[in-house]
Description:
By secondary structure, this protein is an alpha/beta fold. It has nine helices and eight strands.
Amino acid sequence: MRVMKLLSLACLLAASATFAADPPPAADASKAAEPTPAAAAEPSASPPATDAPADKDTTPADREAEITPRLPQLTVDDELVWLNADSTRFFAFKRLPAKAAKPRGAILIVPGPRAFIDQHPSTTQLREIPAAGGWLTLALQVPLQAEVAAPDAPPTPQANAPADPLCARITAALAFVDVTKPPLIALVAEGDSADRTQACFADGFPPNVRAFAAVGRWRGKLEGIKVPSIEFVPALDPAAIREADRRVKSARQPNMPPHRRVDIDAADRAFKGAEVDVAKRLRGWLEKLPPPPALPKDAQPPPAVKS
């Protein structure tokens, strides 16, 4: 049953992505004059075809709303979690640690933009492999509305700018995993979501976040990261290599927390074929981190800032 549900979800995600990316096929002129009975009874809701090429990076604003009602039937019963952020209900996938009475820690995963949870194998492995080693994982659904092309520079907080809705979702997800009082919470962001995540907390991550990992190409800086961090760089992505080199050269502040860079050989931007390796390396790095110091009893997570 579990396998069938996950396969159904994967098929739905693939169909949704195809629908969003590809224009409808042109009608056969020879059959245009003879509509089928179904076509005559049910007018087409498809927009007229155009000659403009489809933009495969564009996500329809209603994709998240389209799939959300189907989730209870498509996901494993104990994995689906509903959370609220800014009066908006969104979903996350939870994976409990295997054969462990108490989690070794919690990992909050922020998938890349324009992606559903588990749409890409990298996110699936980040959810599953650490859980097999005793970690609680929670992957949140990123907002799909109003996605725009990436700017030339990483996002930074701006006065009077509209809040990135991702910030409120991260804050809500952190509060959810914090209820379990894990020994350590790690924040893991994929691709451009790493930049947005860092911009959400310009003054530093909340006190309960004790480690940060970036998977793939991102343009942020190390100076604002006040916890141990690691980044996984796809060796076949020249832009990712350049950004990683720039971060290392510009990180000259004394007493910075340790940062580790891991170049994944023969991996493209999507880490195709290397997803398991990345997830295992992340789990191994987290297991070797020294225990974090105890939080003050009156410590309160700072609110996410506008970006």
